[in-house]
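README: folding subset

This subset contains proteins for which both the sequence and a predicted structure token string are available. Records are stored as plain text. Below is the entry for Accessory gene regulator B family protein (201 residues), shown exactly as it appears on disk.
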Amino acid sequence: MIKKFVNYMTRKFIDTGIIERDDDEVFAYGLEIITSASINTIFALIIGTVMGRFIESIIFLVSFCIIRQFCGGYHADSNRKCIISFNSIFAISIILGSIIDIEKFSLFFIILTVMNTVSIFVLAPVCHINNPLSNEEYKSNKFKSRLISMFICIVIIIGVQLNLDKYIIYSCLALTWVNLLMIILKISNIIRGKKYEKSSS
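--- output ---
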């Protein structure tokens, strides 16, 4: 559905002279990303509103999105899978944030946040083995991922001290998911690399 919409809009923009035909692939790729992200955000906000967690949804989405783009990690291979997987992650996070007694586990979430931050410092950015970043992109993303993860880590620790546990847990969960997606792709890259070495030997 998204592909059809993107292709239709791309043709329209070419026919009206807004973009050149030579730029159709770049435009289509950008529009596809924007459309997919918009659908994910809309669905997430609907889920959060229905569950009575609108503010918490905003906190999760902001925390997740601002660091995810620089850390990399596993991505679904189709828009449908992307929408399903992201909104599943989001729904699980909202449910966990709603049922966990945050005050009893505040120390655990601080430790978890620090562990995730350290992992991001070491691993990020993680991109697909067949789609590596340029040297400049890698350095830029590493710096930004470290800076943002440190900022989120500090906000979470301060939030615990200010008894804002019911809100900061969503930032912690967002950081945890970003870290897990990085680790999943990292392991996948290692497996692919070993398979390639075996097949080429």
